[in-house]
Amino acid sequence: MTDTGGFVRGAYDILDAARENLVTVLVSFLLGLVSTVLFLRLYLFDKIQEQTLARAAAQGYDVETSFVNPFEVILLQAKIGVIAGVLVVVPVAVYLARGSLKRRGVWFPSSSRPRVAGFLIGVAGLFAVGVAYAYVVMIPYIMRFVAAIAVRAGVRPFFRISSFIDFVLVYSVIFGVAAQLPLLMVFTVRSGVVSYSFYRDKWRHFVLVAAVISALVTSPDPMTQVVVLGPLVAVYFLGLGAVRVFASENLDEETAIAVDETAEADQDQGGRPSNATAEGAKAATRSAAEAGVDAVMDRGAIDVAGAVFKDMRSHSKKLGGVFLVVASVSFYWLIYHGVDAIRRQTVSQMPPELASQVETVQLEIFEFVFLVVKYSALAGAVATVPFVVYYSRETLISENVIGGDGSPLYYVSRAAVVVSLFLAGAAYAYYGTIPVLVSVLSNSIVESGMEATFTVGEFIDFVFIVTVLVGVMAEMPAAMYFLISSKLVRYETLKSKWKHFTVVVFVVGALVTSPDPFTMIVVATPLSGFYLVSLVVTRVLCHGTIKKVRDERSQLGLAGESN
Question: d(Cα 384, Cα 367) in Å, to the nearest integer?
């Protein structure tokens, strides 16, 4: 088997050959770049749109492409041209360095050239088959599916040209690679170039590299990256299975070599303690030291979280069932009714002539699908919260996280009031505030001579954020009042946790909103400020209860503790 150092030195030889023949390499790169750009401008862009959107057009879906940046098309063509130029340069550089590679023993011997040529032809053929399958079958089907669900929700498919072309080309390459990667893995193992253990042990590195590539070559939405990453990872593990089937004799040789090396290492080591034993002793010492530190530190929050997690794990099937049912129902409702109903309600208070000029569009291929998945998962997570509290109630009471006086009916009635206030605030925002805001913004846009066109992701995010924001602000004073008056939580605890609340709000705002710092600040700042206002209101309304709790704790010698 050729050692790894030989390949590294061979790579340096290829770079040296490229440097010595710089003119040839540059000419090859420019030929690949210029020819690709001209081919894209004169033929390929139009052909790709015609072929991939034909099935959607046949079903009556009006799918168009657009550009939102003046240099978007030029930069897209340049990017594809650079990639093509690099692909042309690589075989040229390898050919120029063939002499050095032969001397280092990393070139194929003459006797194996026919077999290598056949293998390369097979790889190229399988790659072409994968690309053709993706281009002719899969991508048109995906585009029809994406267009159908968008049009059904009243969203106009208006894909960015860069995202559209990137998706078509990248997905075609993914299918091409997926078609021939198992063959490549079997060939390299059977020829002794790479061992099976190398492929098996480096799967994490492959996943990481594939994730980086998918992030670099696709649009920034996670759904597109998952669509690219998924086939690569799946075909890698399929290749591992193919190696075990078609190169089993090589696996037997590797196992025998590993056994011999282990026996020799044991003989050399003799009766001395192994490195693993020594490391284990050191780890035990470190653990003892850390345990001493933990004994000093207050680990109450960690203990409570661990106990709650244990309760959740013991009821994981029930919680998972609730999550899946709610998420599935939410997904179906949003796809077929929800988004369209939200859009209609938002423009319901506009004059007809203004409402006809307001539309929502989908710029990214999977923007609408990812939006629905995001809010379906959020609905499922919110639905599980009451069940988590119910199943963990004994733990929370025993750990003094919740307490207080009153019957279960007392707490249920207070919770119902808080939820009712939240729903009232959310309804006021959804039916009153949001239509007015959208109407004012749209009218300002139209009067400026522009089209009031909103991306579906930003539009639904705006509706959701304002609705939840007003709902939380409506119930926050009442929630604090009931928590303190019922002696479930001390006023000092709520006061000391406002920084934690602010951090949580910013994190949640970053997760549920667009990746825009300004939007995140607009969401988080009002909630954080209103938290302080609610504290002031609660301090006035619950003055007697707060004083009584302080006196009781002072008599028990707990005045300085926060729990």
Answer: 26
- The tens digit of pLDDT for each residue in 406-451 reads 566 767 777 888 889 999 999 999 998 888 888 888 888 888 888 7
124, amino acid identity:
A
> How far is the C-alpha of 74 from the C-alpha of 97, rounded, in Å?
34
Contacts of 175 (CB under 8 A, 6+ apart): 130, 131, 133, 134, 138, 231
Q: What is the pLDDT of residues 188-207, one digit of tens each?
A: 787 777 778 888 888 888 88
* 426 vs 424: CA distance, rounded Å: 5
- Burial letters for 295-317: b for 16+ Cβ neighbours within 10 Å, e otherwise? eeeeeeeeebeebbeebbeebee
Sign of CA dihedral 522, 523, 524, 529: positive
Distance from C-alpha of 331 to C-alpha of 338, rounded to nearest angstrom: 9
AA identity, residue 394: E
CA distance 510 to 502: 12
End-to-end CA distance of the chain: give it in Å, rounded.
65
The list of the chain residues with pLDDT below 70 reads 1-13, 101-113, 215-225, 227-228, 247-304, 396-408, 410, 509, 511-520, 523, 557-563
| Token couple for 224 | 């597109």
